[in-house]
Amino acid sequence: MPFYAVGHKTPDTDSIVSAIALAELKKQLGEDVVPVRQGEITPETQFVLDRFNMPTPELKTSVAGESVYIVDYSDRAQAPDDLAEATVLGIVDHHKLGDITTSAPLECWIRPVGCSNTIIKEMYDYHGVSIAKDVAGIMLCAILSDTVIFKSPTCTDIDKKVVEELAQIAGVDDYKALAIEMFKVKSAVEGTPARDLVLRDFKDFSMAGNKVGVGQLEAIDNSVFEAIKAELEAELVTLKAEGERHTIMLVLTDIMKEGSEVIVVSDDDTLAKRAFGADFNDGKAWLDGVLSRKKQIIPPLEKAFS
């Protein structure tokens, strides 16, 4: 009976690739581990998998009775709903420590770096296991995506070093050009339903007993969102009510301008200003220099709730 490596709900590239890369490592260490996903693949992730001829992990939303490795999260809200009925063998993550608990000791690799795949690369090195060329390629892309081509404040020198090493293994001469291709795919929003866009990279959090949802969309130029912004705002209102959320946000990140427009719908009209120190007009504000949800959005939000 296999074990499973599973990323978070509404998976991004790091979540999908982390499951694949960890499963490949564990297989070389003698464990039968299968990568799985909890949601649909984003266009960016599909581009990455296709670029390196990697198969899409199977969809698996129930893990009751299974043994699993958790990758790219440690919050129960982002886990399979029946995770309490599974055995958690380990966690690999680069976010804040969440509320997943276990009844037995487990393997934990949690570090403040820009991407979970950076940590998995260090796991390969620790065990003295070589990385296959195609696996190195998708890991490279995941790190470039999560660090926004090294622009994110979450990016560390370790991430940059690992990217250089993975590029050599994968045979990628110009990884920045590859990253631009990847972000062009991510920026293509025309024809995609507003709900799909809001939920493309979306996470729920529990803050002081309140359910808070935060989505993020990254583009090379935020002008691609102008024609659909009203639809996005309307979808936030709908999703807030459907999910019984106290607050819902959408972070529209402009990679080239290195900042984000944040759209907020909340039961507390003063929450966003308290969190970010900006004036929100009609629930919207530009936050210069804000690129990272986990480092620049979630911490000040949690502080505002407390």
Describe the 3D structure:
With 306 residues, the protein is α/β, with parallel strands linked by helices. It has 2 domains: 3-184, inorganic pyrophosphatase (n-terminal core) (Alpha-Beta Complex), CATH 3.90.1640.10; 194-305, DHHA2 domain (Diaminopimelate Epimerase, Chain A, domain 1). Helices cover 38% and strands 21% of the residues. The protein contains 10 helices and 11 strands. The strands form 2 sheets. The protein has a 6-stranded parallel β-sheet with strand order 3-2-1-4-5-6. A 5-stranded mixed β-sheet has the order 7-8-9-10-11. Helix 1 (13-28) runs parallel beside helix 3 (116-127) and helix 2 (43-51) packs antiparallel against helix 6. The longest helix is centred in the N-terminal third of the chain and has 16 residues, at 13-28. The chain is globular, with a radius of gyration of 19 Å. The protein starts with a strand and ends with a helix. This is inorganic diphosphatase.
Key terms:
single chain; 306 residues; alpha/beta; inorganic pyrophosphatase (n-terminal core); Diaminopimelate Epimerase, Chain A, domain 1; 6-stranded parallel sheet; 5-stranded mixed sheet; 11 strands; globular
